[in-house]
Amino acid sequence: MNLWSRIRENAVLYIGILVIFYMLAPIVVIAIFSFNDPTGKFNFEWAGFTTQYWAGAFDNEEINRSLWLSIRLAFFTSLGATILGTLIALALVRYEFFGRKAANLLIVIPIATPEVVIGAALLSLFVYASAALGFTTLLIAHIMFSISFAVIVVRSRLIGFDRRLEEAAADLGAAPLTTFFRITLPLLAPGIAGALMLTFALSVDDFVISNFNAGAEVTFPLYIFGANQRGIPVQVNVIATILFAVTIIAMTFVILQQRRAEKMVEKRADDDKKASVAIPI
Amino acid sequence: MTTLRRRLVPYGLLGPGLLWLVLFFVVPMVFMGWFSLSSGSLESGWSWTWAFSNYTDAISEYSTQFGRSFLYAGAATILCLLLGYPLAYAIAFKGGRWRNLMLFAVIAPFFTTYLIRTIAWKTILADDSPVVEVLKFLQLVPQDGRVLATSAAVIAGLTYNFLPFMVLPLYASLERLDLRLLEASKDLYASARLTFLKVTLPLTAPGIVAGVLLTFIPAVGDYVNATFLGGTNQSMIGNVIQAQYLVINDYATAAALSFSLMIIIMIAVVLYIRFAGSEALMGDEEEAK
Amino acid sequence: MTNAKEKRPFMKVAIAAAGLVAALTIAACGSTGGTDNTDVPTAQGGKASGTLNISNWPLYIDEETVNDFEKKTGIKVNYTEDVNSNTDFFGKVQPLLSNGDSGGRSILVVTDWMSQKMWDLGYLQKLDPNELTTVFDNLIPSLQDPAFDPGRGYSIPWQSGMTGLVVRTDLAPDIKSVNDLFDPKYKGKVTMLDELRDSAALVMKGDGVDPTEASTEEWLAAVDKVKQAKEDGQIRRFTGNDYVQDLAKGDVVAAIGWSGDAVQAQADNPNIEYIQPEQGCILWSDNMSIPVGAPNSPAAYEFMNYVYEPENQAQIVEYVNYISPVKGVKEILQKKDPALAESDLIFPSEEFLSKCSNQTSPPGDEAQKKEVENAWLSVVEG
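^ Those are the sequences you sent over. The predicted structure of the assembly is below.
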């Protein structure tokens, strides 16, 4: 195979990698400026190299608190929204029932609603209910605006799903729940993983709706937005970089573990083969 | 399974999620709907007056921003599709063992707050930055021109921010694609192009439809990118609604604008689904059965 | 926020959601009440103890003051930096306040016009001067009788600042007047604040009109002038605080901005300077107020008095670099930090402020105010 045809063969991979670079460009800038040593309170002019903010990455109590709040919130949001969304997606794709069109509509409309209106309307509801604003109201709001996204991602995986696998399982005598956990769920996994990630990102990134319904809680975006008024501390860059690095490293680690496990299995299979050759029965 | 039980199953599955949406979306929206037909002010209170003029006034006053929002969101959606499809394809078929890592690299930047990322983009696209110099050299930007505070910057920002919304559903449907179908097509001497157009594309249509809607719908109502990357003539309808609500405290106009936006989006979505010939998002899912 | 309220909020909200629909159906022909300030209570004084919740702007206090206050008084302070902008903050507390609930806050800090707006809507309590003796002993005379709150009946200044020109003196050395912003040679290199009471008022001063005396027509004329400049491409953006970044990068050479930002940005780039416009500046203050439904107002009074002790105030000023409303701070800082004490931006002389006007809202009745605000909105969000 000559070079040109190899390039052509993998062109889509190269384009894909370029797009990934595009996605990562701001992270690179954020990481570079985490080593900046700004002379004043603003961190957007390069002023010199320092590692002092890395050394004191978690010194800022307020950043830590808001970050931890956002991570907790996003965790429960993605869990809740993905569970509710997957159930809805299953119902919509698998079943014929009265009111399906209405249900479909109800899934799409929240995405089309401007955030400020959702935020303000929810706040009115909470005030009317005299519910104390805080983590619970934030969680209610975040799950609400994340459900639709979870439904759509999971559903695009479910459509055209090969149902014969499930039927086969049922024919072999598997109970419906067993079929669901052993067959349906694993096949749905990429969709569910996508929904988890998307809803996590949505939650961790939300400003407007949180601003209305947070009460005295300060999420990470709320903190950043406020800090931006008078200069974002360099620690924020450090923490953003750490967050990114940790997730990527953890991911790589998992993948490498998987590889090793696969190799072990292969190797054992090989050994078995050799063994069986060595000892003729 | 008895017929009755089988009939009740979908409601059981829908129940919790829809209840959540009804309580925390529909109910507050009824409240907003009440506002959208009211007149009054914060000082004098609001009263229900069937003020349909709220709608007509709002739409005629801000038709420019409505048009601009759909234009920007449309452009960003097309760009997302053009960038997202090759990426999703590469991850699904060329990623090999690094597939999950690549997928993660796409979405991990979004775990940091948009504001930090947007500030980073402002650094990258500053008037005298190397990137802009290159664009000027390539004659893509006029010599005395700029990138920030233009429509191009807003569209680029929307594209960047909504790309994962396109990539994830595309990936989900590509990953499920039966590779044997592609091989069969090859065996039948179809060119790579023909295979793509006749096999891959139609089979991933649900993913495309979902991706387009997930990108387009939230992008129309977005206000963040126009706020930070736009200039004086790039305000989108989301910015207007935000300002009507927060700055002027004209809750009636803000609500009327929101409902107008939602109605227009719903019409656009229905038309799009008719046109796209797929019912992946709403209505019957014939292909699902 | 009481414990009883925190119990099972989900169920409560669910029940209330059903109730809300019912109430709306019944009220479909009625109206929700407007509000005024005819019967607002006076915040109670007394012995201070317990917990105090404060909402203030981000990075608007040093790291020690709250601790010192807690140590001295035994009051537990929850100090939250959740006021990012007057309008965003108003949006999120308005539904609470109109319900007579402060969300647990005992002190909130907003800018003059927002203090006035909240007062007019009946969202703030009256203050008892007998509880604020330290405050009134030390409040500088120029801030004792502002037009919106003569005698300081409901607002106590936190810090003050000036709206004027923030300029890259290396790139635009000749900008001295508000009108220089309209010079075609700076086309596309100028930004203005998105706030009517800052930008339109300052532009008006450029035309020799005093915003505190201006008529609706004069406000509209100023808005129109900005609109024209925007359509010519003269103005690059309308901004919040983020204009400083544009200046630091040189994307923008001159901006309508705030004095405190310039002081802080100078540390990054010494060429960023606050220029007092030839026509003077717009003076404003952020004020502490006690909202309706506030718990523990004695502790709120205690805190207000505490920050008005010159020693304590000096500690805050040293950190935030805005204009202090407290007497005697300059003398203290002269010993601690002479450079700061000499700055015209932190301790402005009377001469420096001679042409400045206090920040004010457009005049007239509700309809006239709304006309100006809507005109401005259609420029900013055009």
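Chain C touches chain A through 48 residues (CB under 8 Å). Residues 204 and 222 of chain C are 5 Å apart (CA to CA).

Shout if you want it in another format.
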